[in-house]
Amino acid sequence: MPSAPSSTSPQAAPPAQAIALFHGLLLAACPDGEVNARRLAHLDGYCRTLADLGRQSFDQLMAGARRLMADYASLPESVAALTRIESAAARARLFVLAVDLTLAAGEGGTQSDEMLAELAERLGVSEEAGAKILAVLQLKHQG
Fold first, then answer.
1. Angle at CA 85, nearest 5°, toward 36 and 16?
2. Average pLDDT over residues 67-90
3. Of 12, 16, 97, 136, whose CB has the highest number of CB atoms within 10 Å?
């Protein structure tokens, strides 16, 4: 995998909740499993807009995600790790952010749709809630 686009000063390791959130966003940013500099730069920029992830070192978040992915054959298969997120609110937030990131990247398509559907299923987001989230965020990202 390419290295992260930026680093910050040394910090304590990110908490498990931040790593899980970042991992879910990495899945949304790279639905086909291809991690490249352009996608990482977009993910880094997006994470900087979030209060909890913006305070964390991108390199440390990426390292934590790599450790999480180590148990799986590929990045897309590592979506199973998200079932470890216990909080319903954290799962719902991750899905909202993943949809937002996907739409912001402008990389829609079958693989993105399939990854978002897989994320919704693994995170326990109902089809009805997922459709509402998508509709609202599509309004946000219109023209």
1. 65
2. 93
3. 97
What per-residue string of b and e applies to 53-87 under the rule 16 or more CB within 10 Å gives b?
beebbbbbbbebbbebbeeeeebbebbebbeebee
Task: Name the residue with higher pLDDT: 2 or 131.
Answer: 131
Residue 7 clears pLDDT 90, i.e. is over it: no
Strand ranges inside 1-143, DSSP E: none
The reported pTM is 0.88
Q: 2 pLDDT band (50/70/90 cuts)?
A: low
Q: Which residues contact 90 (CB under 8 A, 6 or more apart)?
A: 17, 20, 21
